[in-house]
Amino acid sequence: MSRAVLSLGGNLGDRAGTLRTALRALSGEGLVARSVLYQTPPWGPVEQPPFLNAVAVVRGDRDAAGWLALAHELEQAAGRTREVRWGPRSLDVDVVTVTADDGTPVVSDDPVLTLPHPRAHERAFVLVPWADLDPAAQLPGHGAVRDLLAALPAEDVAAVQRWEHQA
Fold first, then answer.
1. Is pLDDT above 60 for 167?
2. Would you say residue 15 lies in a domain?
3. pLDDT of the residue at 164
4. What pLDDT sits at residue 80?
5. Residue range of the domain that includes 96
6. Whole-number Å distance between alpha carbons of 44 and 151
7. Which residues lie closer than 8 Å to 49 by C-beta, 6 or more apart?
8. For the chain, what is the domain count?
9. I need a labelling partner for 24 at 20 to 30 A (CA). Which of 73, 92, 128, 166 fits?
10. H helices within the chain, ranges in order?
11. pLDDT on residue 86
12. Which of 9, 6, 48 lies closest to 160, judged by CA?
């Protein structure tokens, strides 16, 4: 058994519908908790529409590669195509952390799956929803989610807005 924190986001098509579908699929994969949806500005150099984002915590009989495979399955089911790095997408699912059953964080420098996610500590769109679920959660090698969030520029945090159309 392992526990994973997944970050989900999308900015094409029915953003909310796509995220809800992915989150429903995760309920069959050991969903422990999920955040509400947040609207966030796009990340990266490509001009594009705003994202909806969420964080989910899952627990199951998968290793880190298994959680990545699940992330790719969810993206494929949502019609994701990988054309431009940090470009628009129907669904992006990142594996942020994986923790073994004994509580040991999985650390990997494999370029296919780097754990913990190498930029999670810089991303308000990951930290704000995660802090809603568990502000004391730890991002291995970086510290408590609440502390990481407090260290971000205030304008980055303020730009992550709870989406008003929750279902």
1. no
2. yes
3. 79
4. 62
5. 2-162
6. 20
7. 11, 12, 42, 88
8. 1
9. 128
10. 15-27, 64-77, 124-133, 145-151, 154-158
11. 59
12. 9
106 found inside a domain: yes
Rounded to a whole number of angstroms, the distance between the first and last alpha carbons of the chain is 31
pLDDT at 85 over 70: no
CATH code where residue 118 lies: 3.30.70.560
Question: Can you give the pLDDT at residue 19?
Answer: 96
Give the integer Cα–Cα distance in Å for 121 and 152.
9
Residue 95 lies in a domain: yes
Does residue 81 belong to any structural domain of this protein? yes
According to DSSP, residue 90 is labeled: S
Tokens 């260290």 locate to 151
Contact call for residues 100 and 2 (beta carbons, < 8 A): yes
Using the predicted structure, report yes or no on whether residue 126 has a pLDDT greater than 60: yes
Q: Which residues pair with 92 in a beta bridge?
A: 9
